[in-house]
Amino acid sequence: MKPSLKALASTLSLLLALVAACSDNTVVATAPPSDPTVVTPEEDAGTTAEVDAAPAFDDGTPTRMACVGTLGKGLTPAHGRLDGTLVSIVGASDRGCPSDPSHLHLQVKMNGAVYDIAINLDGLEGETDARLPGIPYAEGWHPMDLDYIGDLGLHSTAITLASPGPIRDRVVTALAKANHISIFGTGYPGSDGAHIVHYKGAGLDGAIVVNPSAPQAHVIAFRFDNDTF
After folding, report:
1. Structural domains counted in the chain
2. DSSP state, residue 34
3. Which partner from 40, 49, 66, 147 sits 20 to 30 angstroms from 186, CA to CA?
4. pLDDT in tens, 206-228
């Protein structure tokens, strides 16, 4: 027996009612609210952590005074290292203290007396950073060797600045804030200063060392045109 049209219509109405009921009770999953304190990898892309730079080495406040003509007598006519305080950079026109056109003269105070240091301007100049060769800085005169290659890893190709004017300007700039200083050189016969502050070989090289107590001091080196090492 075939169902009547009335029965079919009743069944269809029941099915539609069931579908509607299911639609009303459907639960839709939603994402939990985002936590504003959480940064996802996408949001954090491109950021860089800040790293504090190492502080500059503090060698104290420089002390400067007018150059003097009365010098100490505490050095020896040997090769060594003078550790002291830079107190004067002698100008080309200064009078009454050691000076000459082919050298830049420095005055270094050591154990209460002042000593003259003659720096050649008629060669070539170069600079590097390195640990102070030899014993740690200690005010005084210390006979010892210096070898550009063995102690500093320094070769002639790194010492290239020429002409007295540019060399004077560069050295004066490098020494502008220098306080403690170490000078490798050979003592004058009169024991009142040092010279040969340049390459000589055989462990007798000379140099200026700024901030000698710093982990990486600043070294100013010199040579002549015909020096190759």
Report:
1. 1
2. P
3. 66
4. 999 999 999 999 999 999 999 99
